[in-house]
Fold:
Amino acid sequence: MILSILFSSLLASASPLSGQVVNLIPDDEGLKVIAEQNKKIHVLYLRNSNQNFVAYSDLITQAKAEKRSVSFEVKKDELLVIDKLKVEAKP
Amino acid sequence: MRFLFLLLVAFTISAQAQTEKLQELLSAVEAHGLSSSWYQTDELQNAIDSGDQARIAKVTSGLILKVSQDLNRGRLSTAAFGRKVRIKAKNFEKTALVNEFIKGQRSAADLVQQLAPQNIGYQQLLRMFTHFKQIETSGSWMQPTPGTNFTALKMGSTNMYLIRYLRVRLSSMGYENIFANPTFDQELADLVKLFQDDHKMKADGVVGPQTWKIINTPLEQLTLQIALNLDRMRWLPDQAASEFVFVNLADQQGQYYANHELRLSFKTINGRLDRQTPLLVDSITSLVLNPTWTVPFSIFIKDKLPEIKNDVSYIDRLNMKVIDDVSGREVDPSSIDWSSQNSQNLRYTLIQRPGPWNALGFVKFPLQNPYAIYLHDTNDRHLFAENPRLLSSGCVRVEKPYELAESIMTNQQWTVESLKQATEFLPQPPEQQQWLKTPRTVPVYITYITLAQKDGRRVVILPDAYGIDKLAAAAFQTISKP
Structure:
């Protein structure tokens, strides 16, 4: 029981993930972000209800164009939902 | 900086004259639903009591600027409404006019005239506000006698007091009738039916509890509701463009204006209560014929993926195609191992092909906002017969997409007929959607006005379905004084 609660709270909490943005697919509810980290593809989602949606989508679009890495803080509900993000400095 | 400049001007005017200026302005803005009591602050009183001329000048000039800004941009901030309102606050660009007022070069009435928005929604509400304020002043608003039992009235009813009360109230709301007539005759029954129809009720001519509830709206509540709506209209540009699309979410109605004249009215379907369409100031720069529709990722995961896992032909049956998110290419659905797909690794997008099955119908009017809110046709046109029409996921479905497209394109090539020929009358739906650039940028105002006026006189009180009036009323009461 305790383990189950611990596991659930671990899933609900934000966790970092970083990678290069491969593709962006907008839909009516937000922006699907396809990111690659160590040759592994991650499927993340930025909801347009995120209060920083406009700023974040601009940052991701720019990072994709400049091929810069982005670190994402994600919250796992039914999807890997982006909570916060930061574009990493140019090497 | 702006305030410092005003302060400099203010110091050259006597404190007495400036206090009078403030009071003059406060009296003038009452007619626009801004209460003078909001600006009679303790700070002002303390400054006057101190007799310190410089302090009085500073406080009064600050208040004059605040009142001016509130009248022009709204007392309530758009930011206070969260996701319900996606309108950026206007810049205040009329400080020079305020200076002229302080220097005595401009009257309060003239300043108010210059600051008050001239957009059509504001002006219509202002006329309504003036009408009810006149009724209030003249004392012609009939108050029910305490303890009145509002029994049902219909043709042949003989309760003379209630009939008179009903006639006076209807008249006050612009439903003109001869209220000296003490009978409930056919003319009154027809008027009640009109009132019910305007208010989207069953038009049976019987004044029952639902009709009484609206008839009995207290005057103070009505004037407050108009004041809240006026404040909301201050968020829109001062001067509406000559050509624009206006959507009232509260009424689920849209209008198209050209050369400042109403050219087209149409019903709309707006966001459900849990997916409310936000208030927006936006624009149309292009149209899409035969649009595709990208299935939102969460719907793909929740609704579509289980169906596809069960039977992959589901994709074809819904006229959808699958795109690989990494390569951007279309993929044969049968080549994918759907059983291993989940929300963490699903790197495909489902796109619905153009055609009569498409959720966006045959015409889409993209907007510029980043929230994926736009106007479109629908393949569920029968839903326009419903009331209320709060049924979409946030976008605005329009009842007359071809007429709207024709109006916006305004050239011989694109008429309702040719638009239909290029879309639903095609023998085979096209594979690709078609973008058309509009000849002009057409502003779009997605608003929320809970009072409508029919035929320029009948006042219709609309339900506050999105709860925006309720939030605004609370904010009006609690907003801190400047």
In short: The first helix of chain B runs from residue 2 to 11.
